[in-house]
Dihydrolipoamide acetyltransferase component of pyruvate dehydrogenase complex (Flavobacterium aquaticum), 531 residues
Amino acid sequence: MAQIITMPRLSDTMTEGVVATWLKKVGDTIKTGDILAEIETDKATMEFESFHDGVLLHIGIQEGQSAPVDSLLAIIGTAGEDISALLSGGTATETKEEKVVEETKSVTSSAVEMPAGVKVVTMPRLSDTMTTGTVATWLKKVGDAVKEGDILAEIETDKATMEFESFNAGTLLYIGVQEGDSAPVDTILAILGPAGTDVSGIAANYKVGAVVEAPKAEEVKEVAQAVVVTEQATSNRVFASPLAKKIAQDKGINLSQVKGSGENGRIVKSDVENFSPSAVATPTQAVAEATSAVAAVKPFVPAGEVFQEEIKNSQMRKTIARRLSESKFTAPHYYLTIELDMDNAIASRNMINGLPETKVSFNDMVIKASAMALKKHPQVNSQWREDAMVINHHVNIGVAVAVEDGLMVPVLKFTDQMSLTQIGANVKDLAGKAKSKKIQPAEMEGSTFTISNLGMFGIQSFTSIINQPNSAILSVGAIIEKPVVKNGQIVVGNTMTVTLACDHRTVDGATGAQFLQTFKAFMENPVTMLA
């Protein structure tokens, strides 16, 4: 029977793919594991292998063409088979798992209404750019009574971890996404309802806007077993996910010895990672290996244990990686570095902090000087668009804050209108929220310029990647005490190095240099910032 092959999702952010090269042509015989084509994703060009045997009957996407994920890529079947019905049917793919579902639906296809009082809770969209959420922590468990307003779970978005409260009352009957797992927005997250309500049918067949009666477990099992038996009778293929195959190959594990925990016994990643060869060794093999190990006398070879730890990427880490990559490879960066005389800044700060209930940091002074310089050089405070350059005449400065999962950039709105003490108080408040994961998405949006300060770590100078859609980011180093020349004499002075990264599409070299000159004047004469 002909099989439809769709454009695969070969990366976590892939929405469409480009067929770089077809390695098979219509009429070619295909075996399981053969490379069909090279697919260009949003990250790399990757080989795409076939999971079916047969003849390549149709190619749906030509070389050089792009198409969304799940579009019709190819059809594999028996030579001479009529595929006109599949071609007219669009991109629906009939895999063996889907065949099981379709056959079981034919047994029980009548629709049922949602039981009284039952509410389906879906993965919420907690930020404007959120497409997927991760359940960081469940604060309720199945069987718990839930009141309207209770916090159900902490959801990790692409920007922050946020509390998600219930808008319904009832008993938590079902959890659809376990702690640490990710799921797209609108995926079933939980089901609430009267205690004791059977929601297994809803959980198994939930679709937005419709609930279909779940097939009986016995019927699903019978059909699934029939498909598995048929497959085993016609093929010796070991059913495993591509990732499981790759891990097994890297570790030298024979997949035929691994017991699959996936659907219909399919081997998945965790099965391979948790596989222990000793678990399948016979007693005779174990004795022979032990005897051989004791008897063998070899020269001592120093060896240590290879230890690796795999840490699942958080949504925040994925978003940071994506946005920084996009910025680095789309915006033509260039860098301007200048050294500041910080003696007057140190004296001014000591004087300001001598006042009652007043505390100003050097970072606050950098933010204030940047805001005032941006008002004088608004082109640095700009954004690039394909059709126009946007000049921002308001100043919203983003301040990079290191947090456990990566980096957040809280935004000080209308920074140029703030005093030094107001800047200090706002930075402290927003940084505290960011580190405690209580910051709101709105507090991280709308920046027109960004500052990254690593001076507190002793870093003298560094460069940063522009935080798009900003056109520039200022990297601030540590204050260093060293010999300097003043009035023709070598004296001990305090200096600080700053580097401005600019997008050459919007900020010319001379414009960036003039901005730094103005910034330097404010920093070296802080009294001018108080006028």
